[in-house]
Specification:
The protein is of the alpha/beta class and 445 residues long. The chain is built from 14 helices and 14 strands.
Length: 445
C-alpha cells in the first residue's frame, strides 16, 4: 500500500542542534546537515568502549553491503526523481531482507542471531541519515525521499493479503527504545516478533491464517501524522482482503505476557526516541473516521489466548486509570481500577499504560470502529521484558528473545482463530501497579 498521507512526517521529527559527520564520504553528502537524535546514536559505543554499536550490529548481520550499495546508488542518482527510485527500492529491499534473514531464508547473511531485530533498526538509521544529508535535494524533496524510504523499510508498502476465504491478521511491532547511555544495546522483542510473523501462514482453530506485519517507530511525531491509521486503516478499507484480526504488539512487563483489556486516550509524556515528550489527549488522525471515545475494549479471543502454553505465563490485564476530575484532565492523582470505565470519565491510562504501545492499540481500534468494523477483532499484546545482553549479545539474551517470539507466534495463531469461548471476568492484581510497571508510563503521585 502507498501511504502518501505520511509525506510530511519526517520533516517534523526533532533534529539535534549540531551537525554530525556524514555517514558516508563523498561530495554528495553534506556533513553540516543536522541529523535526528535517533541518527546521532549511530556513533554510540558500549560503556567499555569498542566499535559503535549500531554499525557493528549491522555488520554482524551481514547488512553492511546493502547499506553501502544504497549509499553508492544515492550518490550516483544526481536528481531527486532518480533518487526516489533508489530509496523506495532500498526501503522495500531492506524490509524484505530483514524478514528473510529473520525467518531463516538468508543463512548467508552474517553471524548474528537471526531473531535479532536490531540490525534492521540501525541499518534504517544509517540510510535515513545518508538521505538526510544528500545534497542535491531541496528540503521538500528530502522529506519525500525520507518518507518513501521509511515507509518501505517498515513493511508499510508490503502488506499484501491474499484473496479468498483464508483468514488474515495484521500485526505491528516496535523499534527498540530507551537507547540512551547503557541502553544502546536494547532489542525489542515486539519488533523481533513482527519480523517472524510477516508473511507467515498460521495454524489456527479455524484453519490457516495469513499474517502480515509492520514495524512502528517509537516517535510521537509519526503517530501525530497518522502512521497507525494509515497502516491499519488502509488494510481495513480493502474489502476484498480485509484482515479479520488487528493485533498491536509491544514490550511490556517483566516475566509475563499481557492481553490488554483497555486502551486509553491519554499520553503520559514519556520521552520518545528523539527525546521529545508529549502530554495530553490522543489527537485524531486527519482523513480517517474516528469516534470520540476515551477507552476502547479489546475484542480479541483472550480466553483462548490465555491457554497458550509457552515459556511465560499469559495474563488478561483489566487495569485502567481515570483522572479524578473529568473537567480538569491531567490534574490530580489518577484513580486506577479493574472494572470498567464509566460514561464521562477521562482516560489517564489504559491497561497498556500511556505511552506509544497503548496508543498503537487505541489508534488501530479507533479507526476500526470508525469504519464500522465491529466484526473485526482487535487488541494489544504486551510481551515480557527482554532485558539487555552482556556486551553486544549473549546466549541467554538470544534464548529469551527467541522464546518470546515463538510464543508470540502461538498467541497470534490463537487470536486469529475466530471468536473464542466466553469466560467470566475475574479480579486481577492491584490496578495501579499493573499500569505503573510498563515502560514509558508516567502517572503522578
Amino acid at each position: 500500500m502507498r501511504l502518501t498521507a505520511l509525506l510530511p512526517l519526517l520533516a517534523a521529527v526533532p533534529l539535534f542542534a549540531l551537525p554530525v559527520p556524514a555517514a558516508a564520504a563523498g561530495g554528495c553528502f553534506d556533513p553540516a546537515a543536522p541529523l535526528t537524535v535517533e541518527e546521532q546514536r549511530l556513533t554510540a559505543s558500549l560503556p567499555a568502549g569498542g566499535p559503535a554499536v549500531g554499525p557493528e550490529l549491522v555488520r554482524l548481520a551481514g547488512l553492511d553491503p546493502l547499506v553501502a550499495e544504497v549509499k553508492h546508488d544515492l550518490c550516483a542518482a544526481r536528481t531527486p526523481r532518480r533518487a526516489e527510485r533508489v530509496v523506495t527500492r532500498a526501503g522495500d529491499r531492506l524490509w524484505r531482507t530483514a524478514v528473510d534473514r529473520a525467518q531463516g531464508r538468508r543463512p548467508d547473511l552474517g553471524t548474528l542471531d537471526r531473531f535479532d531485530d536490531r540490525p534492521l533498526y540501525w541499518a534504517r538509521l544509517q540510510l535515513s541519515s545518508a538521505i538526510r544529508q544528500w545534497m542535491p535535494a531541496s528540503a521538500s524533496q528530502r522529506t519525500s525521499l525520507l518518507t518513501a524510504f521509511d515507509r518501505g523499510s517498515r513493511g508499510l508498502d508490503d502488506v499484501r493479503f491474499p484473496l479468498g476465504k483464508t483468514r488474515r491478521v495484521l500485526v505491528s511491532g516496535f523499534d527498540p527504545f530507551q537507547l540512551d547511555g547503557p541502553g544502546i544495546t536494547i532489542s525489542n522483542p515486539a519488533g523481533a516478533s513482527a519480523l517472524q510473523l510477516d508473511g507467515r501462514v498460521l495454524d489456527t482453530p479455524s484453519g490457516p491464517a495469513v499474517a502480515q506485519a509492520v514495524s512502528f517507530p517509537v516517535v510521537w511525531g509519526y503517530f501525530d501524522q497518522g502512521i497507525v491509521e494509515a497502516a491499519y486503516g488502509t488494510a481495513l478499507r480493502d474489502r476484498a482482503r480485509r484482515p479479520d484480526v488487528v493485533l498491536t504488539i509491544s514490550q511490556g512487563r517483566p516475566g509475563r505476557f499481557d492481553v490488554e483489556r483497555w486502551a486509553g486516550a491519554w499520553r503520559g509524556g514519556f520521552p520518545d526516541n528523539n527525546n521529545a515528550s508529549v502530554t495530553g489527549g490522543v489527537p485524531p488522525a486527519a482523513g480517517w473516521p474516528q469516534p470520540d471515545v476515551q477507552f476502547i475494549e479489546t475484542t480479541l479471543p483472550y480466553a483462548r489466548m490465555l491457554e497458550v502454553p509457552g515459556a511465560y505465563p499469559v495474563n488478561f490485564n483489566q487495569a485502567f486509570c481515570v483522572w479524578p476530575d473529568s473537567a480538569h484532565p491531567g490534574a490530580g492523582t489518577p484513580v486506577c481500577r479493574s472494572d470498567a470505565p464509566a460514561p464521562g470519565e477521562i482516560a489517564a491510562s489504559g491497561g497498556g499504560g500511556n505511552y506509544l504501545s497503548n496508543e498503537s492499540m487505541f489508534r488501530a481500534n479507533r479507526v476500526r470502529l470508525g469504519l464500522g468494523l465491529s466484526s473485526v477483532a482487535g487488541g494489544h499484546l504486551h510481551t515480557p521484558v527482554l532485558g539487555q545482553p552482556t556486551g553486544l549479545t549473549d546466549a541467554a539474551f538470544e534464548a529469551r528473545r527467541q522464546a518470546i517470539a515463538t510464543q508470540v507466534i502461538a498467541l497470534t495463531s490463537a487470536a486469529a482463530g475466530g471468536p473464542g469461548p466466553a469466560v467470566a471476568l475475574r479480579e486481577t492484581e492491584s490496578p495501579r501497579p499493573a499500569v505503573n510497571s510498563l515502560p514509558g508510563t508516567v502517572l503522578p503521585g
